Amino acid sequence: MATPSDRRAVALEMKVHALSTGACWAPRGIGALTLAVMLALAASGGVIAAEPSYPDRPVRLVVPFPAGGGADNLARMIMPRVAHALGQPIVIENKAGAGGNVGAEMVAHAAPDGYTLLYGTNGTHAINASLYPNLGFDPVKDFTPVSRMTEIAAMLIVNPQLPVMSVAELIRYARANPGKLNFASAGNGTTSHLAGELFKTQAGIDIVHIPYRGGALAMTDLIGGQVQMMIDVMPNAYPQAREGRVRGLAVSTASRFPGTPEIPTIAESGLPGFEASAWDGIFVPAGTPMPIVERLNAAIRRALEEPELVAALLARGARPVAGTPESFARFISASAERWALAVRASGAKID
Prior knowledge:
Elements: H1 4-20, H2 32-43, E1 59-63, H3 70-86, E2 90-94, H4 101-108, E3 116-121, H5 122-131, E4 143-152, E5 154-158, H6 167-176, E6 181-185, H7 191-203, E7 207-211, H8 215-224, E8 229-233, H9 234-242, E9 247-251, E10 278-285, H10 290-303, H11 307-315, E11 318-320, H12 325-346
Parallel strand pairs: 1-2, 1-3, 6-7, 6-8
Antiparallel strand pairs: 3-10, 4-10, 4-11, 5-8, 5-9
């Protein structure tokens, strides 16, 4: 004789069978949500898999540039606050080489699980595709944009021994001394290189490009007088100008930078229409689930709203500009078009 528990088990089996075969059966009082849960039970063999919490372990951020440079410094300023918002540590790993391509390629081929992030820039995602014939990755297809983080102004700086005090004086001096001024950059195809080439072209001057392996080395030689000028990102340039190690002439943005309103723009100082600024943001490998992308995006936006961080970034020449993944994707497309024009104007190519 069947016991009450046996009868309940048989009844449950019949109900699940009816649900799994599409039969229109529902006992009185059972609503749609209950039916959906029972269907899930039937489909999963009686177990509902819980959505894993993200993140439940440390996250790795690949910075594809040398330690101590502008990108690395900004990442180390911002990421501790993003880590706090996520509730897990973010471990920064520097993988420099080929203008950021080495680190970017590594992340492009990483597992799309949200535990390997890329600190991307206008170099990795807007410039390099026009410079390198073989990147090793597709900056659009191989990544999902998470959020833009900052707009990074650049500053035209010169060695203090150079007898110029403004952009207009620099242009006049260069025209009077063709081929005698060297401008440094963080490497072929970097923002500092292309900004210098744009300046050279728009000003109609003959200056010689000297590429370095990173902005820190270029800055050392500029301070030492081995090169005479450079257009470098503000996180590198402004602290040196503030301490008097180099002379800051102007910023590269279209309008004066909020953190340094006393410094004029290149455009207003003798070269109308000039504009060249850098940007950064966070990317994950393509195929990363959108709930993870949204979780990361929320943490970044929260971090970049903290007043202390905003003030610290502005003091270094970086303006917080976090937004949605969709707005970041649109921005990247437009930025790539602008920098492609700059690459063509410079004639730069890297094999």
